Amino acid sequence: SSGINAEYGLAGLLLATEVLYDRAIQAVLDPFHVTYTYEMKMKVMGRKYPVAMEMISTELAVPLTTEQLVTQSMERLKEMFLRCDVRPGAMELVRSLRSLGVPMCIATGSSTEDFELKTRHHQDLLDAMEFVVRSDDPEVQHGKPHPDIFWVAMGRFKSPPQGPERCLVFEDAPNGALAAWAAGMKCVMVPDPRLSDLPPCD
Questions:
Q1: Can you give the pTM of this predicted structure?
Q2: How does pLDDT run across 111-122, given as a tens digit for each residue?
Q3: DSSP 159
Q4: SS3 category, 5
Q5: Phi and psi angles of residue 117, each rounded to the nearest 5 degrees, phi first
Q6: How far apart are CA 171 and CA 107, in angstroms?
Q7: Do the Cβ atoms of 143 and 50 come closer than 8 Å?
Q8: What does the alpha-carbon distance between residue 109 and residue 113 come to, in Å, rounded to a whole number?
C-alpha cells in the first residue's frame, strides 16, 4: 500500500453526467423562459439533489416547487443516466492508482437510485473501488460542501488512513473541493473548463 487512500466524486469526474444535468434542468425551465446559468450551476454542483433544486427554485424564481423540479428533471435524467460514458482518462487514472496499491472509494452526491442508473454499464469502475458512499447514506447528515461524506468514507476503508491528511480526494465540483478541504484532506480539483474562479484553498 502507498499509505494514501483515494476518494472520488462521481458525476462529472469519472462519468460524463454534468452535461446531462444541464440539459434536463434547462428543459424543465424552458417553459418559464428561465436560464440555468453557469453561475447557478457552480452554486449547486455537488450538493444533494433536493437541496440543489430548492436553491434553483428560490434564486431563479422558478414557479415550481422543489418537489416538482426534482420530479420533472429526474424523469428526463433517468433515461440519460443509462447512456452516460466514462470520462476520458478516468479509467486510466483508476487503474494506475490501483496498480500502486492505493485503496479507493467513491463518495458521491448521487442518491442510491441515481447511482445505480449511472453505473449500470460501468461495473469495471465499481470493481476497482472498495466501497461507495452515497448522499442518502444515513450517516451522511449534511451534503457537500460539508465534509460529512468524506469523513464517513474515511472510516469505512478496510485499512483506514491514519488521518484525513492521508486521504486524496478527486473532485470536479467546487462544493466537493470545499468539502474535502473542510475534512482536512488533500484535493485534486478537475474543474470544468468554463470555471474561472476556483474555491480558495490553503
A1: 0.84
A2: 999 999 999 999
A3: S
A4: strand
A5: -65, -45
A6: 10
A7: no
A8: 12
